[in-house]
Amino acid sequence: MLGRPARDPAPGSWMGRLRSDRRISVLPEDWSRANWALRLARDFNAYYLHIPLDDNLIRGLSPDSRHVAYIKSLISTDEAKIFLSVIGTGVDFEPFVNDEDSLKQLAKLLADICRRYEMDGIDLDWEFLSAPGPEELQKLKALASELKILMPEDSTLSAAVSRWRLPDEEFFSIVDKVHLMAYDGYGKHATYESAVADSDILLSRYGVSPEKLILGLPFYGRIFSPEAADYWKGTMNYRRIIETFQPEFTADDAGGYYYNGPETIVQKTSWAVDQQLGGVFVWEPFYDTDGAQSLSGALRDTIEYR
């Protein structure tokens, strides 16, 4: 499960933000009042606090301790863990890894944050703006290698990747876990078939072991009609889709949006269990609804009774 970011940056693979959700405030002073969010987000076994790689991070102004405290407040089992996820594109990362000294300073900063807040590891969400060249790949691998040296003992280094722009095989041998963002494809952006195909690329072509692979599940929809002005770019979170269009329980599309309904979440999760993958993650639980159409509920029931 991916936790609420300090602010809601659009992932690099998106060409736009999720539409404004006024029921979710990302102001830290408002988070403690979001009791409905606590209900949706409990009982996951891992939480990732997403922090943009920017001057605030470098200057020690983020992460905000209140955000860390909020994520920790979601923990309801002794096994649950907290991770720092650093998000950005090559444009964001490269200024801090252009030479050996800068790279070591960044790695030390991240490792120190991990220790200070007693986190269980670091997730690198370095998203490529285009097909990565040898120089960018080398910098990514160098940062991962330095983090493995500096991170606390027994902590986990993971990375978020998209099948459309992948690191090389050597990188996957460095990290402990791989979060596969199996969504944001063109057309119906996150079908069951595309999730299986995306996974197979990593498992078969790149030699990633099943237990290292974490399959990503989207809790939002994308416009999938080529006739629409915002085809593929237009997004709406799952809860808003349910509230606006009242689709059938078995549906995966409504109002021009394609999304994953409960049945597709069950199908993908069942496949991940059958393939003995390392798990599934969601982006993100706060986009869920409650009641019978809750995706989190479908996910948990599948894992529990599979």
Descriptive report:
There is one protein chain. By secondary structure, the protein is of the alpha/beta class. It has a single domain, classed as Glycosidases (TIM Barrel, Alpha-Beta Barrel). 37% of the residues lie in helices and 18% in strands. The protein contains 12 helices and 11 strands. The longest helix has 17 residues. The N terminus is likely disordered.
Mean pLDDT: 87
Strand content: 15-25%
Largest sheet: 7 strands, parallel
- Output the strand order for the largest sheet: 1-2-3-4-5-6-11
The H-and-E topology, N to C, reads as HHEHHEHHEHEHEHEEEHEEHEH
Total number of beta strands: 11
Known CATH architecture: Alpha-Beta Barrel
Helix fraction bin: 25-40%
**Oligomeric nature of the chains:** single chain
Q: For the CA atoms, what is the radius of gyration?
A: 19 Å
First-to-last CA distance: 19 Å
Low-confidence stretches: 1-34
**Apparent shape:** globular
CATH class: Alpha Beta
| Number of helical stretches of at least 4 residues | 12
Q: What is the domain tally?
A: 1
Concise overview:
With 306 residues, this protein is an alpha/beta fold. 37% of the residues lie in helices and 18% in strands. It has a 7-stranded parallel β-sheet.
What is the secondary structure topology, with strand pairs?
Blueprint: H1 28-31, H2 35-41, E1 46-52, H3 55-58, H4 65-73, E2 81-89, H5 90-93, H6 100-116, E3 121-127, H7 134-150, E4 156-161, H8 169-174, E5 177-180, H9 192-205, E6 213-218, E7 220-223, E8 235-237, H10 238-245, E9 253-254, E10 257-258, H11 262-274, E11 279-283, H12 295-305
Parallel strand pairs: 1-2, 2-3, 3-4, 4-5, 5-6, 6-11
Antiparallel strand pairs: 7-8, 7-10, 9-10
